Amino acid sequence: MTPNLKPEVSICIVSWNVADDLRACLASLQRQDNSPTAEIIVVDNNSSDDTMTMLENEFREVITIANPENRGFAAATNQALQRSRGRYLLMLNPDTLVPADGLSSLVQFADTHPKAGIIAPKLLNPDGSLQYSCRRLPTLTAAIFRNTLFGKLFPRARSAADYVMSEWDHDSVREVDWASGACLLIRRETYEQLGPLDEGFRWGSEDVDYCVRAHKAGWQVLYTPQPAITHAIGRSSDQAVVRTIITAHRSMYRLHAKHFARNPLIKPAIWGGLWLRAGLLIADWRVRQAISVVRAWFKRLGRGVGP
Length: 307
What we know:
Elements: E1 9-15, H1 19-30, E2 38-44, H2 51-58, E3 63-66, H3 73-83, E4 88-92, E5 96-97, H4 102-111, E6 116-124, E7 130-131, E8 134-135, H5 140-145, H6 149-153, H7 158-163, E9 174-175, E10 178-179, E11 183-187, H8 188-194, H9 206-216, E12 220-231, H10 241-260, H11 267-303
Parallel strand pairs: 1-2, 1-4, 2-3, 6-12
Antiparallel strand pairs: 4-11, 5-12, 6-7, 6-11, 8-10, 9-12
Helix pairs in contact: 1-2, 10-11
């Protein structure tokens, strides 16, 4: 990481109360082999943990921006993108681990695919299994069956599987509709043409929106199986589940209204359907929480019983 030279890659990370994950992510970036010149920009959304102290004490080379409030993912990412100087801009979640050849592989791939405005590497779960990070454009039926009670009742419904492209092994280069914003390499020219992320998406769907905008502007969104980035989903969002569900569904509606609302008469139905879905997800989460509490209570009770 050479601060005095214009970097090839600007790594843009938004954090919120994930100091341990962020530490591991930054450590993985320090272990890069044959790394292109890079700068790291961390925007912290008013964390209440020791994130800022950790950055100051352990990663002084990192450029930090401390927000006095939680501005949301898109707005905070834009702060990093606007501060960046790199030829490529890497949106990276703090709960990721980049392999030693990660940055060099991404830059080499981007250099040999000049029509790709956005490049998405393979994502793996912490246990090494494939994370379905590439998606087709969202549909109403996919929303109905993905991660919902209806999906559990009708496990063979194809809509959710088609949405996450589960029929594909993810071992080949492929153009995709969109990919997870957990790790996206954006070409500088693409960013300058498209502009910043839409801050109307406070959390969720901003990555879909940006990929759709890239396609409309004539750029490819390319998936590559190399490198493989480890991503632990939801480290920040798990801290505020109900608020995250509500915010994500607001973003889903904004995405539909912005790009897919060919018939304005169905907007109220979409709005109602999304809020019904949000309500069901919140109810499901509360039930699971209650079950966990009861199980923990019985477990403690069982430990207290005996001669």
